């Protein structure tokens, strides 16, 4: 007879999911009520308000999609892209490629702007793409590229789109709650994220927000939105304001309890404080890794504090290291993707996992493991270098 499943207790310092706070886990276990229960609807209103705070927007079309971040991505494209629409898609990692896939699946024309993996989107290339193509409807790009750990200048890119009369779709899956993000201030028209990164919530919910300009485009579509489930005109009947809600789907009630709690925790800490915390612990991790002789893929000016892509020392089997970290320390770090597979590790410092205890655990476990494998690293300096940052 199959027995109940009890997962091991891990420290999650990969590209996601991140460690989930005990408060959020406790919220998951609260009694399930109906998704049209007046108390649940009251909680939904609080989720919307707190999500507007997290995104820094007042847009009423701000809500969690009842599915993972990939569905949030698809919700943005399926509602805004119609057959024949021209979309400039920026690709500097894995997830820009997924944007291209969405554009083409919904009949749009993807105009690619490509940058080397590990570098940010080049605004000059985006300017040139607009200059070379008339009637561009949308600019799509990844704010924080999870596959490389690079941060692009969303504010400048959105300004270029506005100057050319185009809307923007922005992936903020890894930046929401971890890096500066100002959806309304920067003029982002459609934005999506995930709960499992810097919000430290279980996977399965995708926060999205649409500007008034985007709403007008959705309302004026010439063709019916190809997805029934992700059609925002229908979903708003359930997530709209007020006590009267139209049934659309059975919301993941307990998962939304957890999301509510994670947003409460973000409000308690304060957005700017959360951004500063991620930067502070990144500085300690960076000091320790560099003292060990491990370098970073991304230049410091464009580096994500919450997702650190670092080079694997020469001659080291990176998969074996990750396996040993998991077996000996219950510590998970991530592998490289695509062209970076086997060349880098991705070390996450996201949400609840972004703390001093985890930084020191990661440094000591990595040093011990690499030393035992005979890797060419500098020993006995990493912890002291990190502690120097903390003591300062």
UniProtKB/TrEMBL annotation:
N6-(pyridoxal phosphate)lysine PTM sites in chain numbering: 197
Repeat keyword on record: no
Pfam families xref list: Aminotran_5 (PF00266)
Domain Aminotransferase class V, first and last residues per copy: 32-336
Signal peptide: none
Binding-site list for substrate: 346
GO annotation (BP), single: glycine biosynthetic process, by transamination of glyoxylate
Superkingdom: Bacteria
Entry similarity comment: Belongs to the class-V pyridoxal-phosphate-dependent aminotransferase family.
Name of the molecule in the record: Alanine-glyoxylate transaminase/serine-glyoxylate transaminase/serine-pyruvate transaminase
